[in-house]
Each structure stands twice: as C-alpha cells, then as structure tokens.
Amino acid sequence: MSKLKSDVMKNLFVPAIEIVLMVVFLVFAFFFLLPRMARVFGQFPGSDKPSGLLALSLYLSANPGVALAAFLMGMGSIVAVVSLRSFRRGVVSALRRIKSVDRLLRIYRTYTFLLTFSSLVTSGVPSAEALAKMEAGAQKGEDAELFSRMRYGLTREAKKFSGVVADCDVFAEDFADWLGAIENTNAFDDEIRKMEKAYGEIFSSQLAFAQSLVAPAMVILSGAGAVLMGLTLYQPLLGLVSKVMGKMM
C-alpha cells in the first residue's frame, strides 16, 4: 500500500500546489486587490457605487469574521455531504460513465484488491480464507460487502475464482480473463504476483496521464479567473471614462 500512496501523492502533488496557489490568489484578490481598486474608483467624482465582485470584495474585507464563518460552514457542509455513502456512490456512478475514468477506477480497484489478496495467497492462505480475512479487515462497508459476495460465490455457489471476479462489475475488464487462464495451473501464486505488479504499473501510467490532463484544466480555470477579474475592473473604469468624455463633449 505504501507504493500506492506514493504514486498517488506524486501525481497529485502538482495539482494540489496549483489549487493552493489559486486559493491564495483568490484570497489576495478579494481581500486586498479588489477592495483597494474599489476605493480608488470611489475617489473619482461621479463614480458609480461598486457592484458585483467589487461590492462583494468590499464587504468581505470589512467583515473577515463573516467570510471565515461562511468558509467554515461551507467546508463543513461539503465534508458532511461527501461522508454520505449514497453521495459517494452517486459520484462514482456518474464518473464511471466517462470511459477513461471508469477504466482508471477499475484498475485502481483491481490493484488495491491484489495488493492484499496476493500477499495472503502467496503466504499459503486459500482464496476463500483470504477473502474472509479481507472482509474482516475491510474499513469500508462496500469493500466488506464485495468480499463477502465474492466468498459466497466461491464457497456456496462453487464458482471458479475467475467467474466470481467476472460477476463483480468493479474490476479491470481483463482481470477475469487473466485469472481464468491461470487459476487451474500450479503457477497461480506466481501469476497473482505478476498481476499485482502489472496492474500497479498500469495504474501508475493511467494516473500520470490523468495528472497531465489536470494541468491544462487548471490553466483554463486560471485564465477564466483572470478574465473575470479584468472585466470586473474594466467595467467601472469604462464608466468613468464614458462620464469624463461626456462632460468634455
């Protein structure tokens, strides 16, 4: 699991830094830049009353306690909603409609399954007993339910392990086929280890590809934010110029 965590942390490090920088920029813009610009515009004779983001920035800068309370309430609400099992299932179900995301999630589930299963099987633990141990040690209810269903199919329904895996619509598409090719051989333990390594490499490459897509998305978001800030400052400036030109004419 340490390798899995290191791979995830390595690929999420840059997006996390970009998100932090965006948050810092937003705080700077709403609490320092925009309020100061609003006050500068307000010093001109005949200037309009600040509106939109300028008015919001003035309010937030004058009431930091309210802004902090709203932020904490928002974060608390997000955490509460995300902690709901039904919400997580809904999000995962929606994401799996995207083929590339579905493939990544399937590979991730296969890899995390093999990390524990292969270590148990190669230690001499039978497959059904390994699933029982994984069920007992599962930290998530959905994982325990999955392992229980797999163990039931293996012991009560007398299915082959590849058939049990094929019935679970969460693993990589070729996982069941690979198992079917080696489950009746004497090299099952070795092949399970090879699977773990192979899916680990596939997951790392898929995660790196996903990370490469995040960078352009962050650039687009940053550009959109810059354009929005520019328009926010351009509107009162244009109003002042129009009034000055009107008086001159």
Count of helix runs: 10
| Element pattern in H and E | HHHHHHHHHH
Oligomer: single chain
**Average of pLDDT:** 80
**Helicity range of the residues?**
over 70%
- Biggest sheet, open or closed, and with what strands and sense? none
Low-confidence stretches: none
- The gross shape turns out to be elongated
- Our Rg estimate from Cα atoms comes to 27 Å
- DSSP strand (E) fraction? under 5%
Features:
single chain, about 250 residues, mainly alpha
Task: Describe this structure as you would to a colleague.
The chain has 10 helices and no strands. The chain is mainly alpha-helical. Among the domains are: 35 residues; 109 residues. Helix 1 runs parallel beside helix 10. It is elongated and about 90 Å long.
Summarize the structure.
This is Type II secretion system protein. The protein contains ten helices and no strands. The chain is an all-alpha fold and 249 residues long.
